[in-house]
Amino acid sequence: MDRTAAQHLISAVLALDAPLGDLDLAVSEIPDEQERKAFVQALGDVFRLLNHGFILPVCREYPDLAPGDR
Asked: Cβ-count burial of 59 within 10 angstroms (0-12 exposed, 13-18 middle, 19+ buried)?
């Protein structure tokens, strides 16, 4: 993958941070514990997929693109 595509992928994944944070807040408001846990699990799966499917592969090739603490 070329650097431009890698930068675009990282930027696109990082742009999901705010909407996923909003989703996390919405999930935390679900009063039923069992239902909330199912959504927490699903959201965790999304975070893992973004990390393992996008961020890690890009950053293996371009370590300098690794997102820092933001």
From this structure: middle
Looking at the 3D structure of the chain, how many domains does it have? 1
| Residue 21 covered by a domain | yes
**Chain-centroid distance, C-alpha 52:** 9
**Structural domain that includes position 37:** 3-64
Distance CA 27, CA 33 (A): 10
User: Cα(62)–Cα(4) distance, rounded to whole angstroms?
Assistant: 11
Q: For 11-58, how does the pLDDT look when each residue is reduced to its tens digit (9 = 90+)?
A: 999 999 999 999 999 999 999 999 999 999 999 999 999 999 999 999
pLDDT for 68 equals 82
Q: How confident is the model at residue 70, as a pLDDT? A: 44
